[in-house]
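Action item from last week, closing it out:
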Amino acid sequence: MQKHIKRYFIGYLFQDETFRSYIKNLQQNFAPLRPCKPENIHLTYAFLGQEAEPFIPEIIDILKTIDLPDFNFDIQGLKYFTNQKSEVHTIYLPLTHPSYLLDWQQNLSSKIWAINGYKTPPTWQRRYTPHISIIRPKPHIPITEAEALIASFQELKIEQLHCRGFGLYYKNESGFFTTLYERYI
């Protein structure tokens, strides 16, 4: 049996049952692809990976010192992320967002990078894209298949969703997120 690997991230975990239900209904359009659990629907601010485990106390200390104002955002259509083999590994809802969110994320990232001995995950080399993952195909799928799946959702629009606060989480052995720290300003 494989050992469970904790992959840590800083994000916002959506608690709104109406939004979760909407996502669950949307995911049904993508059967048999693997949906993200509605209880785990979140906005990632920084993916920390398994490398973060020894540095959790320092990361929490950093989170205690930063503020993120509440913000509203809209969603328009669906998009996807690919891996190095040009296979789709995630279908997501892209967010419009206030410009200060990117500045906040960069400030957060630079503070975590500065922790002595912390090795940043390769994903930090990509540009930050605020999004909500809804499908994680296993096995990954070709781009043409993903484009065909999302084509009818380009008119999808959700307006004025609200985000307040952030937390440090990881996915436990049961597949649900465990909260290590949360802050609502």
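Closing note: The helical segments are 17-27, 56-63, 99-113, 143-150.
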